[in-house]
Structures are given as structure tokens and as C-alpha cells.
Amino acid sequence: MHVRRLSRAQKGAGLALAVTALLGTATVGPAQAAPQSPPEAPAPAADCSAAYRIEQKLDGGTTWRMCWRYDTLAGVVLDKVTYQPKGEPKPIRVLNSARLAQIHVPYDDGKTEYDDVTGTDFGYALQNLSAAECPGGTIKTVKVPQRGNVKGLCTTTRARGHAYRLANDSGTKVWQAQGKDLLVYSVNKASWYEYITEWRFASDGTITSNVGATGMLSPFDYDGGDSRGWPIGKNATAHAESHNHNVFWRLDTALDGNTKNKVEQFDSTVTAPTGGGSPTTKTKRTAVTKELGGDAKSMRWWRLVSTTGKNKDGHARSYEIVPGRTDKFPGRSYTKRDVYFTEYKKCEKYASHNAGCPSGTPNSVDKWVNGQALKNPVTWVNIGFHHIARDEDQEPMPVHWQGFSLSPRDVTAMNPLTPADLARRNGNVGPLP
Length: 433
Ligand SMILES: [Cu+2]
Description:
It is a single chain. The protein is mainly beta. The chain has a domain at 4-28 and 49-256 and 308-330 and 378-411: Beta-galactosidase, Chain A, domain 5. Helices cover 6% and strands 45% of the residues. It is built from four helices and 22 strands. Strands 1, 2, 3, 4, 5, 6, 14, 17, 20 and 21 form a ten-stranded antiparallel beta sheet that branches. It has a ten-stranded antiparallel beta sheet with strand order 7-8-9-10-11-22-19-18-15-16, with no helix packed on it. Strand 2 and strand 3 (63-71) form a beta hairpin. The longest helix has 9 residues, at 13-21. It is globular and about 70 Å long. It starts with a helix and ends in a 24-residue tail after the last strand. Copper (II) ion (CU) binds at residues 213, 243, 245, 387. Keywords: Copper, Metal-binding, Oxidoreductase, Signal, TPQ. The active site is at 116 (proton acceptor), 193 (schiff-base intermediate with substrate). It is an enzyme of class 1 (oxidoreductase). Belongs to the copper/topaquinone oxidase family.
């Protein structure tokens, strides 16, 4: 038997009721009046009060700016995210809003299935962070309804190693740079598990989000047996039951401040040589003009393209979706696809168990894909992890990360970190200086 729900009850029977009562309204912070900007009215960069503003200058002169708020049914939500590399006169808007959209946790025996974002007290159980958990950073105070202030949001920077390296032909010169990321993270407890929701903003324009599962295995799920569990105690006394963590993110993009973004899918096909030649590869671009539930596969990717802004080379700015490793769980209609693009609707916030739309509206993202034209696409990313426990998972469990990146493609005319003496290289042949 599971006691994850009992554990929640121990924290106070009122919480479960509070979750229901506050559904869809439990937003705090400066954006309370308008939790999501309407698509046609992008707000300027970081126009929130100082307490809710995050601004960080990184190596190479790149500055990231955003606003944060807290939603007890999603955790930390980031709004109005802009990127301004050196040489750009103003911040470039990337995201209107980014948030977790569900963590679906089905156990392998089919007897238990959790929705850890909407179905537990995840949002209320925001964890206080000590200074040691936010090295070199600042811990922001989060007002959590019915709980009060929680020192719950860390913003800091972290080295990521080489941003680039290039040696000239004679080996007399090496251009190299060490990159840094802005990190924004919080920890929410969902009974036995603790989820670290981390956002990373790199000096080269990349955005990465990962959810890290840690805490402990449910000690009431040691009954998995041989086919659905893994022995974790002396000999075979306890078999921790296997389960999935299917994490969904909701991304409301607004490239160059405009939510009217185009979606494109790219597929490359390799042809093996028939004679003594070499393999050839062809890449095809498909405009995604209608809502789509997409399957990731080898040599396939998607991007969101600005309809407003171009870089200095005259190329449309875009961001590419780069999913991390995933165990796709085909057990529910909404977990069957790796990515969904749906037309923006304010009430569509959760990939499953969505509430707040007019009655009769389906409550999961797969059902919203119904042929509507994509003008203001919302991107849903689904990354799964089939967790087969191991002895090392006790105790505490080592953090297991799962997530994706948004990678800039033609946002700037060159690498935004290009050193000045290589700037003339853009599309030109000739020796390095
Ligand atoms: Cu797990």
C-alpha cells in the first residue's frame, strides 16, 4: 500500500481541501492580476517590482532578465524572460511564461498513479533553502498562501566549463572562454519525493530546465515483486516498486516580444550508398500550421520561429527544442507524445487534470490538439523517466535529472560570445587572424 497520500494528510487535512479551493487562483506576486499576458500584448522586459525581478549579467556581456511568481499549483513560474547578448541594443524576449505543467507518476502495478504537481501539496510544500543550498547566490522569499514566507527560491551562477575553444592554424593562438550559467531553482516536496525544479540560462543564449527527483523511495512500495520491483534490502526482502516520472513543462514563447511564432519540424533522411560512394543525407523542413502532438525521433527536431525579428544577417530568429533523454510512457493519452503544440488558451495550464476551462472542455493536452490553426503556439514538453530503483537509491536518493533545452538558432548573427578579432569571420573564408 502507498501512504503518499497519508503522508500528505499528516501535514494537515486542510491542505487537500485548500488545493481544491485555490485551484486556478493561487497565484501570488506582481502578476496576480494578469497571470499570463494576453498573446497580443507582450510586456517590456522585467517590468515587475524589484522583489520579483531576476537580472544577471554573465560572461561575454550577456544579460538575462525575467520576473518570477509563485503558483501553489505549479511552483515557481518565470515570466517575461529576455536575453541580451553583447552588441544587442535591447533585450530579446524569448518566453512570455514558463512553468511546470505536471509530474505524472504511475506505479508499475497499476494500483497507484499520482499527479505530483496538481494532486499533492507540491506547491504548498515549497522547501526552505539554507545558504549552503544556494552557493554564491541569493535566496528569495516566497509568499506561499496559507503557509507564509518561505526562503524558497535560489538564484545563483555556476561555471559550466568551456564556452568555446579554437586554435589558429599555426597553433600560436588559442581563443577560449569559460562559460557561466544563471541558475534559478526551488525545491518542492511531494510526500516521500523532493523535486528540484531548475532553470539554467547560459551566456550563449541557451535555456535549460531540469527536474531533479530526490528525497526517498516510498517505503510503502516495497512490494513490487520480481517483475515490477527491484530488491533493495538484505537478500530479497524488499522489492521497491518501479514507476515512471513523466514531467511536463508549458512554454509560452514570445520571440522578439511577439507570441505569433511559427513552428517548424525538421527531418533528415540518410541514404546508404549503393556502390562505392558515401552515404548522403537530406533534410526536409515542414511548417507546422496546425496543432500537433509530436513524436521525437532520431534526426527530427522542432523550432519556434519569430515572425517579427531577424538577426543582423537577416535570418529569422528562432529557438530550437532539444529534448533530453526520455522514457516515453504510452499508458495515458497525454503521455503518448513527446511534444505538443497547442494554440494559446489561458485556461490550459496542465498537461493532465487541467481545471479552470469551461465545463465540457477536455482536461488534458492531447485533447486540445484538434486541428486548430497555430498562430500563438504554446509548447508542451514531456520527458519521462522509468525509475527502476537500485540499492543506491537509499538514502537519500541521489538526484536524478530529466529535462530539455531551448537552444538559440539565428538569434544573433554569430556566436554571441565571439571575440572581437574573430568577428569578421561571419560567412567569410580566409585565414584566422
Ligand atoms: Cu522514482
